[in-house]
Amino acid sequence: MTDKKNGISRRNFLKGLGVASGAMLLPAREVAAAAGKSDEELCTLLDLSKCIACGECVSACREVNEPKFPKPKKPYPEMYPTSRVKVEDWSDRQEVDDRLTPYNWLYIQSTEVEYQGETHEVNIPRRCLHCRNAPCANLCPWGAAGKQKNGIVRINDDVCLGGAKCRTVCPWHIPQRQTGVGLYLRLMPNLAGNGVMYKCDRCYNRIDEGKLPACIEACPENVQTIGPRSEILKKAHELAEKNNWFIYGEEENGGTNTVYLSPVPFELLNKAVEKGPGKPGLSPVEDSMADEEKLAYAVGIAPFAGIAAGVIKAGKFLASAAGGKDND
User: Fold this and answer.
1) Nearest partner of 254 among 232, 215, 285, judged by Cα
2) How confident is the model at residue 295 (pLDDT cuts 50, 70, 90)?
3) Is-contact 58 106, C-beta < 8 A?
4) In angstroms, how far is CA 62 from the centroid of its own chain?
5) 10: which residues sit within 8 A by CB, 6+ positions away?
6) Which of 183, 207, 228, 287 has the maximal Cβ count within 10 Å?
7) For the whole model, what pTM was predicted?
8) Omega cis (within 30) before 102
9) What is the pLDDT of residues 246-261, one digit of tens each?
10) Which of 300, 16, 249, 269 lies closest to 121, judged by CA?
11) Could you tell me the CA-to-CA distances from 127 to 77, 255, 271 in Å, in that order?
């Protein structure tokens, strides 16, 4: 890595938030205010020159979000057709931390890249990028995925049937399914969905309480900062121009609310990192929602998705009221 600024303590870093940098870096108490009052969406900047792959962010994410993790019931009902709807069970592999899973919403990709005659070790925290025009939120037929005003893209596990449409349309295939949980067990346990999809929700509940997302708060190297998107991009461009660095996320998929800053080109990183299920790449991504067919589909299903989400939520409420138990 080329520019580790390890001399800045977290205390001093947070003290400087909102003072030297204006609204660029938000102290915890101001995060909720920005999320609730600003017309701008919240965006995070990840300075990869600082990440040392210590894993503190991964541990903090797991600890804080553990109550949201799936608790499946076994044995699982057999699904039909078996060729299309496969069981995805991570409940006995919850310790896996080298990829995205329903129990691991953030992991570190590490790689070495030769660039300008030097070897760079680069560590990349990977999670949902929270797209500005998220295909998962636009194309879920049941209205289970949605985008909040503050830019957070969430999957409602009360509504999700686990059909994995969100993963199919996501350019990075981020959401991961856990079988044996969710409404499908009550509605059509052999024919619909097969679980619930999970991914980073940017600690929306902590932001609502005026706290920082756990991964940002726990990082000892101040890799991540959060703030209004325009100011995050301004800072990213200042650093990129000053250091001859590279930006990823500003334009990808029409723009995301996660922006990476790297001392080496992202095309080199994309070639070097291990890719596959639960391990997204870093290739250039065109705006998938600009596709006319997808746009027409989104417009067509929007009213039905809203109705479906309402009916499912109402049904869940009535069932819970009658039985006194949640479906999970």
Assistant:
1) 285
2) low
3) yes
4) 14
5) 220, 222
6) 183
7) 0.82
8) no
9) 999 999 999 999 999 9
10) 269
11) 30, 15, 19
Tokens of 227: 């703030």
**Largest Cα–Cα distance of the chain, in whole Å?**
68
CA–CA separation, 192 and 309 (whole Å):
15
CA 324 to chain CA mean position, Å: 32
Distance (Å, whole) CA 36 – CA 42: 10
Give residue 328's pLDDT band: very low, low, confident or very high (50, 70, 90). very low
Among the residues of 189-281, which ranges form H helices? 204-208, 214-218, 229-243, 266-272
Reading the block at residue 70, the tokens are 């799936």
DSSP string of 106-168? -EEEEEEEEETTEEEEEEEEE----BTT-HHHHH-TTS-EEE-TTS-EEE-TTT-----HHHH
Q: Taking the mean position of all CA atoms in its chain, how far away is CA 251?
A: 17
Residue type (1 letter), 209? E
Question: At 273, which amino acid appears?
Answer: V
The pLDDT score that the predictor gives to residue 16 is 34
**Tokens, residue 21:** 């940098």
Compute the distance between CA of residue 214 and CA of residue 65 in angstroms, rounded to an integer.
9
Distance (Å, whole) CA 263 – CA 115: 9
Contacts of 260 (CB under 8 A, 6+ apart): 46, 48, 124, 247, 248, 249, 266, 282
Q: CA 119 to CA 108: how far, in whole Å?
A: 19
> What token pair was written down for 160?
């999700």
DSSP 8-state assignment for residue 163: -
**Hey, what amino acid is at 72?**
P
Among the residue ranges 135-144, 268-277, 293-302, the one predicted with the least confidence is 293-302
Model confidence at 194, in pLDDT bands (50, 70, 90)?
confident
> What backbone phi and psi angles, to 5 degrees, belong to 44?
-115, 145
In three-state secondary structure terms, 101 is strand
